[in-house]
Design goal:
alpha/beta, Rossmann fold, eight-stranded mixed sheet, two-stranded antiparallel sheet, 15 helices, 10 strands
Length: about 375
């Protein structure tokens, strides 16, 4: 696929193009605003695309920023990554994802970034960018996924959470380890309900539209504590993810009322994932769960993010608490200049899509500060 995302699906003012020679990638990106203006870089998570920033890019550009949002390694129309389950998984580790972003900036001739903003898995990439290269990234905003700091030199071993989850009266399993299995990609791309319906259910289940999303702090990293989370995080043991979200599908009336993700926008996602599958994004999880990242991140143990930082999430987002203690460590130790931690009403996990005006307002106040 050599074509960029069609202009017909993009809001006015957003352009699509490619950047070549980006750490072995041909990177597809969306942009808005004047390239001569200060840069704001937006990094998506799973299962998303650069397109997930469509609702905030025009407003940021209108406020005087040059806004860029790439399809990251493994996603969308970016090519050059290994799609094989048995292929180059280590290329998806955090430090190489940062190298992708540095390469993108080099290809675009950008020397500094006023703010790097990451959502979900993109929040970790944004955090590592700010931690490793504060000379380039002048501020960082993390969304939905708190960054607790670099790991220690010696990994801490805890209880066997997987055996504990499987032994519960209602046997369960952790979604990240499910996503690391060989079967996960096919489970979603070839699911009974069809990929478009699967994504509708997945986005609904993790949004504020699903009434069951009422997150709270968990006591700790134990099976009993984690099992209080919804099944999209702590799955029933014998279900795959497509079966999981099929149990919580929105009604036709709820779909029709979903202004933040109408069906024609959802079809952009389902079209891209039908074309390339989910394996690229799933490789990110495998780097964490199966040890492909190695111990190199431990080199930075004790190092903090020392540029101004901010956190934004939906008040209905369980991602805030899925790693017990992470949001506290982010504010207390990982970020030395934390300027605010904002939980937005009316938003679940997809905060920049569910409440884009509130996100833009917070970002502009922060960037100008």
């Amino acid at each position: 696929m050599n074509d960029t995302l069609s202009p017909d699906v993009l809001p006015a003012g957003i352009r699509a193009r490619f950047a070549d020679g980006v750490n072995g990638l041909r990177m597809h990106l969306l942009e808005a605003g004047d390239p001569a203006h200060p840069c704001v870089l937006l990094l998506h998570g799973f299962p998303e695309l650069a397109y997930s920033w469509r609702k905030v890019m025009p407003a940021l550009a209108g406020a005087g920023y040059y806004v860029i949002a790439p399809d990251q390694r493994g996603y969308g129309r970016t090519t050059g990554w290994d799609p094989d389950y048995d292929g180059d998984v280590a290329s998806f580790r955090s430090l190489n994802l940062v190298r992708d972003i540095i390469g993108l900036l080099g290809a675009l001739g950008i020397k500094t970034v006023r703010g790097v903003v990451g959502h979900d898995a993109g929040a970790a990439v944004a955090a590592w960018c700010a931690l490793l290269r504060p000379d380039i990234f002048q501020s960082v905003t993390m969304m939905s996924a708190p960054f607790a700091g670099p790991p220690g030199l010696h990994p801490v071993t805890g209880p066997d959470i997987h055996a504990g989850l499987a032994r519960l009266d209602r046997p369960r399993k952790h979604y990240q380890w499910y996503y690391s299995t060989r079967e996960a990609n096919a489970d979603m791309t070839r699911c009974r309900q069809g990929l478009h319906a699967f994504l509708r259910g997945y986005y609904h289940h993790k949004s504020a539209d699903w009434a069951g999303n009422k997150p709270f702090r968990l006591a700790g990293w134990t099976a009993e504590s984690l099992a209080q989370m919804p099944t999209y995080y702590i799955m029933d043991l014998n279900d795959d993810m497509a079966q999981t979200v099929a149990r919580e599908m929105p009604t036709p009336e709820e779909v029709a009322a979903c202004a933040w993700l109408p069906d024609h926008e959802l079809r952009v996602y389902s079209g891209e994932y039908t074309r390339v599958g989910f394996q690229g994004g799933l490789q990110w999880y495998r780097c964490r769960t199966q040890g492909y990242a190695g111990s190199e991140a431990g080199i930075f143990t004790g190092r903090t993010i020392d540029v101004p930082s901010m956190f934004i999430a939906g008040a209905s987002d369980w991602g805030i608490y899925q790693v017990p203690g992470a949001i506290e460590r982010m504010q207390d130790t990982a970020c030395s200049k934390m300027r605010g931690c904002h939980l937005l009403d009316g938003a679940g996990h997809w905060v920049q899509q569910e409440q884009p005006a509130a996100v833009v307002s917070l970002l502009l106040t922060f960037l100008r500060g």
